[in-house]
User: What shape does this take?
Amino acid sequence: MSDEALIVEPDALLTSGVCECCGRLSRTLTGYVHAGDATLAAYWLHWTVGHFPDLNANMDIVIGRWGESSTADDRVAVSLGIALVDGRESYRVIDAASRSIAESGLAGAALQRDAVIGTPLAAQVFAAIDAIHLQDKRLPIIMAPE
Ligand SMILES: [Zn+2]
Assistant: This one.
């Protein structure tokens, strides 16, 4: 990846269902991460209203080459669990293969944790997360009690 600054473009706020345990709404924030003129990643942040940080939130990222001439095989899906550690969100790579992003058709592969950790891809993913964290001003919504 170049050193080009990453620009985050917040997109939608979706209601994706209700929590099985309490009936509260499950919601999703979506957005994109751009590097110069190219789109590097799309992301989906999932949480249940009132459940964070008691239950982790999750983020799915589809990262790689986007745009007209690209196909799903140019991209991979990586998933993260988000926990609150010492008052700050902490992101941990989890297995993407078992998540619905694996069935989305947007990525050629949904990666297991072991396929991400310690690779250049991990650095790219965490650079994207840093950018999202700084630039997507909607993120505190996951803490809202209702
Ligand atoms: Zn619940």
